[in-house]
Amino acid sequence: MRYRIRTGALAFILHRATGLALVLYLFVHIFSVSRLANPASFNEEMALYSSALFKFVELGLLGVVVAHVLNGARIIAVDFWGASRKQATVFYVAVGVGTLVVLYGAIHLLPAVFDGISSGQLLSPSYEVIHGGGH
Amino acid sequence: MTHKHDVIIIGSGLAGLRAALEVGKVADVAVLTKLYPSRSHSGAAQGGIAATLKNVDSDDCVEFHIFDTVKGSDYLGDQDAIENMCNEAPEVVYETEHMGVPYSRTEDGKIHQRKFGGHSLNHGKVAVRRSCYAADYTGHVLLHTFYEQCIKNQVRFYNEFQAMSLLVKDNVCQGFVAWDIINGGLHVFHAKAVMFATGGYGRAFKITSNAHSSTGDGLSLCTRVGLPIEDMEFVQFHPTGLYKQGILVSEGARGEGAYLLNGQNERFMERYAPTLMELAPRDMIARAIQTELLEGRGCGPNKDHVYLDIRHLGEAKITAVIPQIKGLCLDFAAIDPIKEPIPIQPTAHYSMGGIPVTVDGRVIYDAKNSIVEGLYAAGECACVSVHGANRLGTNSLLDAAANGRRTGKAICADVGKLKHSELPDNPMKAAQDEMNRVLGGTGKEKVIRIRHDLRDSMEENCGVFRTSEKLTKQKQILKDLHERFRHIKIDDKAKIFNSDLMEAIELEHMLEFCEVIVEGALNRNESRGGHSRTDFPKRDDDNWLKHTMAWRGEDGKITFDYKPVIIKNYQPMERKY
Amino acid sequence: MERTFKIFRYDPEKNGKPHFQTYKLDCPSGCTVLDALYNIKGELDGTLTYRRSCRSGICGSCGMKINGINCLACKTQVEFLKGKVIYVEPLPGFPILRDLVIDLEPFWEKFEAIKPYLINNSKPPTTERYQSEEDQLKIEEASWCILCNCCTSSCPSFWANKEYLGPAALLKAYRFVFDSRDQGAEERYRMLNTRSGLWRCHTIFNCMDACPQDINITDYISQLKTRIVSERY
Q1: Which of A53, B178, B442, B463 is 20–30 Å from B231 (CA)?
Q2: Is A78–C222 a contact, with Cβ atoms under 8 angstroms apart?
Q3: Of the partner residues C11, C117, C133, the one whose CB lies closest to the CB of residue B148
């Protein structure tokens, strides 16, 4: 029988998973920034990023960042503020706070996603791209 | 395989490890244990170790400790040995502190002390704080500290080895044979000196505070080679064992102020020991509880237990000074002692008798103190006798540490003169025969059934109160059980970790020395300390102020001889508390 | 009430593969898993092999994995175990000798590696060395460790790297480093401040969940980390 996973182990696994996800995100980010060679490509990318699907991905990114940050804070609390005995409680508080932050993000991001779904244009920009601007 | 060491100690409890530390200074020493050192049952001792440090009660003095121990022993303790132990106690405890024992501390940073049963000021006037403690983990931290020091001093350990037979010829010990439990196979241990520190035998009783491993193997290893054992009829029943389980609820609880209550919610100790009340010695309280139960004043639907009440101490104190008790009640009785009283009943706890030794731990083979060369014993398996007919609480850790140390010093003094005496031609024969016989059994009897019948009948017939009638009955029961043992069959024939074989071997040991307990009890027509005969309710100093020495022949026949009690400053008087 | 036990079996002498064997046993209220094993061994199958001694949670012999969590069999009440089947397995991460008996040598090696004894080379006074109540309380709970190996064998860091000292040894290191009477901290830091030392603790808390003595192990390891960082860097 597999060893039972409790809050501490769950937090540990989540921390590794979100950490890896953030590393992956970093590479994607560097890759996309490296492609911003001229206004046209900038516009093209911005258009993609403002699409409904990417709003959804952004919400996921927010979740990953929040989970990683809050668990990092939890580990600091455990290592420096003697929160070991209360580690499960701290975990649940972190989950609660994280959920609230992600919900707040969702309120701001999801309308664009729903718009995209209802108009059937998941990859179209959700707002007008400024032509010829920026450098 | 043969292992050669200067000194080998069988048993890794407090006495064995303390002796190993002493002997390690001058000679090559090894310790053999059927468990691991940190698993020894000394670790279950909770309340403390007695020594007149005067850290809390400055009026205390060694003289009072000696008197209390003598009186507690119902005057059967040898007063020279008791004087040694009590005089050495402060030094012994300071040494353990220097080794690193994390004792609880007083406000000024000294070792803290608490009250304990039978320990008093001015010869019984008022209870005194003499027991040095580390919360209620005193035995645990002592055992672990001694083990740690053994690691520091590179003592050689043979873990998970069961001693099988002692090699003694013409009253000279040559060594012994042991069985490697993990890998199977017998090993010969050839030594100049062998020391027994094999502990007690609570497992011979149904309700016991002792470990599964406390099967008194050392005692019958001695009787099998024709050596006597002493005062075996004196078994201590601890008054406060957890109901049905027998698990120890430390006397430390009463030391901190706990009450004993019967079914009528009455502090019944008022009637038995008006001065010391719940802090009377264990034999008296165990009898008091048993009397309450027999007279129908028990608690619960079956009126078969009484209550130990610590609620008035308050949560803060309970958690700070007796935390283990709280945990034990929650885990094993589903009782929160902060809110409810703890159901308890007397539990077989300690063996006052054992392998007879001189005051320095040298094993003797007759009533004239003739010494077996190269054989030593200390701790619960030995009978020095510092506990006489009844041991006081906290004197067991002291006995193990002080007499372990003293025996170690005796071995150091002797080891230069001792030599490795020649081994017999086939040293393993007895052990090999025993294993073959047990493994090859083809009968129908199950070890567990015989074991249960043994402990149930010992509890019933050789418990707190004994009568000639019950003991005679028990004598026959033991004969029958022995006969049944000849027809056992064990399932496991493996070499590796054969615990089935182990349990059978332990059972045979218990069957053998239980005969000595029962016949000794039947023989002693008086009531003294832990031995209470309702047909002879009075102590009889004219006829019985003497130690029983018992030999068990190969045919199971038991013969007795007697050794005088050493009396120095304290003549026997009536024992009141 | 009748309960079903699936118990891990392995007998190296029979060349058999490790497997689970099912036993059914009546377990009255108050019956612990150790009581159940005792009765299974006594009445049903004498070849079932496990370690045990004190049966009151102080000797540390009967650590095993019960329903996926390390604990002492003697402290685990059968009636509180949920589920139809009770799984009993040896402590994970150690070589198995037979059935529920593991090879503890790696455990003791790590225990001995951190110098688990008081180091104080000054001449002791004729009485006790003084220690304040406050200083004693720092090490009190840590000194209650029973060396049952429930913690070290529950630690994923240990499973991944068998060189890791593990929580039991680290707890013992804390008990001495934080003992006001001890002078051996520097010697121990050399063992603790290595790749397989203190820093392999990733605060997973399996050790604390498993500890039958309910010792705040992770906190003590954290305090060791803080102490080493502040003294060394």
Answers
A1: B178
A2: yes
A3: C117
Cα of B240 to nearest chain C Cα, Å: 15
Whether C131 sits inside 8 A of B94 (CB atoms) is no
Q: What is the distance between the alpha carbons of residues B346 and B283, in angstroms, rounded to a whole number?
A: 10
Distance from the Cα of A88 to chain C's closest Cα (Å) equals 9
User: So what's the ipTM on this one?
Assistant: 0.98
Query: What is the total count of domains within chain B?
Result: 1
- Residue (of B194, B176, B120) closest to B393 by Cα position: B120
Residue B259 lies in domain: 235-349
pLDDT at B560 over 60: yes
pLDDT at A133 over 50: no
- List all residues of chain B from 184 to 223 with a beta carbon under 8 Å from chain C: 209, 211-213
In a domain, B440, yes or no: no
Chain C CA closest to residue A76: C222
Neighbours of chain B (3+ CB pairs under 8 A): C
Please count the CA atoms within 13 angstroms of the CA of B515 that sit on its side-chain side. 25
Give the SS3 label for residue C69. Answer: strand
Is C219 within 8 Å of chain A by CB? yes
Residues of C in contact with B182 (CB under 8 A): 97
Tokens of residue B458, six digits: 């010992």
| Domains defined along chain C, listed by start | 2-102 (3.10.20.30), 105-232 (1.10.1060.10)
pLDDT tens string B485-524: 999 999 999 999 999 999 999 999 999 999 999 999 999 9
Would you say residue B282 lies in a domain?
yes
* Interchain proximity C179–B496, CB inside 8 Å: no
Please name the residues in contact with B206: beta carbons below 8 A apart, sequence gap of 6 or more: B246, B455, B456, B458, B459
Q: Do C206 and A78 touch (CB under 8 A)?
A: no
Place of tokens 């061994």: C41
Calculate mean pLDDT across residues A61-79: 95
Is the CB of C130 less than 8 angstroms away from the CB of B108?
Answer: yes
The CA distance from B130 to B107, in Å, is 17
pLDDT digits (tens, 9 = 90+) for B296-317: 999 999 999 999 999 999 999 9
- Whether B399 and B81 have beta carbons less than 8 Å apart is answered as no
The 10s digit of each residue's pLDDT in C179-230 is 999 999 999 999 999 999 999 999 999 999 999 999 999 999 999 999 999 9
What domains lie within chain A, and their CATH numbers? 7-119 (1.20.1300.10)
Which member of A9, A78, A88 has the closest CB to residue C156? A9
Nearest chain C alpha carbon to A2: C68
CATH of the domain at B319: 3.90.700.10
DSSP H helices, B205-305, are 217-224, 252-255, 282-294
